[in-house]
């Protein structure tokens, strides 16, 4: 194919939240596939250092913008990832979190409707709340507190899903909705307060490991590269399907995760126990039957390998004394 032909097939893709943990990996993968990427971010939790290596690419453009305000651009596809994802970040300004989920989604859906772009929503396993069904299939409606400290995120993401499906039914917008389960890997924010970043940094520094509750609650951790494979595979489906769980079904207790981090870092850190936060889900594991059957997707990287790569990333941040 000549250079001119490649230009004809190249897509212009908007990634909101593109300077964040997941967004920066997605931008990188889309550029690797030859696409043109417009990264839109208000740098609330995103960092310029996450996209620094992409700035020299002529097919990459970064725009500082808050998606709660309208955005008029011409694009072929939209990945809507903008939203703080960790409890410490989304609870810092809960009203802004809800506005980002609701007003932000309305703006991105209005944009998709006008330019007839396919649009992808980063939803979350949090739509299942503290689940009463285990593992969670997409058909489960969830168990969510409407007025708790996690509600701004959980209910915001639920409302966003409703908006996506209503824009699809009412206006024919071509949508894709992924429900992401706990994901980890390089470029996680070192101060996001999440269990993977906390325990790895504490283990590397030889500090006490903070276990909330007795550490018997479970999560299923997906490595970022596997997750992005799932995103691309869902976006490239030829039609709208229901929401799809993407996550790694291998479930671990928080105590097991901490012990693995200690082992892999060779740390002398000891486990310490602190109170469990309000509404903290007791267990979480994706049922990925739909992803397996409809996308032919399943995760390839298991916790030991992925945690090793994540430890190497945090070790570099500590060595270079970057914001840790
Ligand atoms: P992140 O905080 O690293 O990235 C979110 C990005 O959105 C940041 O760069 C932030 O600055 C930007 N942002 C926030 N509000 C914005 C606004 N109003 N306008 C423009 N930009 C805004 O988090 P992440 O882990 O990369 O998560 C990305 C998406 O995936 C989020 O929508 C999150 O809810 C979803 N998700 C993530 C996980 C996970 O385990 N990481 C799990 C479930 C869902
Ligand atoms: N919107 C946007 N960019 C566009 C088109 C629309 O940000 O290119 C916003 C617009 O400001 C509006 C929202 O998307 O608030 C929803 O648009 P829609 O057309 O659905 O609704 P309406 O404009 O009729 O309120
Ligand atoms: N957690 C913990 N120690 C920490 C941070 C988190 O024990 O330093 C627990 C937290 O209470 C929860 C689990 O680990 O039960 C996962 O927390 P995270 O914030 O990573 O994700 P989420 O709760 O959103 O799934």
UniProtKB/TrEMBL annotation:
Its cofactor is NAD(+). The keyword NAD applies. It comes from the Bacteria. It is a single-pass type II membrane protein. InterPro entries: NAD(P)-bd_dom (IPR016040), NAD(P)-bd_dom_sf (IPR036291), UXS-like (IPR044516). It is found in: Golgi apparatus, Golgi stack membrane. It is an enzyme of class 4 (lyase). Its EC number is 4.1.1.35. Pathway: Nucleotide-sugar biosynthesis; UDP-alpha-D-xylose biosynthesis; UDP-alpha-D-xylose from UDP-alpha-D-glucuronate: step 1/1. Keywords: Decarboxylase, Golgi apparatus, Lyase, Membrane, NAD, Signal-anchor, Transmembrane, Transmembrane helix. Residues 14-309 form the NAD(P)-binding domain. Its main location: Golgi. Belongs to the NAD(P)-dependent epimerase/dehydratase family. UDP-glucuronic acid decarboxylase subfamily. This is UDP-glucuronate decarboxylase. It comes from Sphingomonas immobilis.
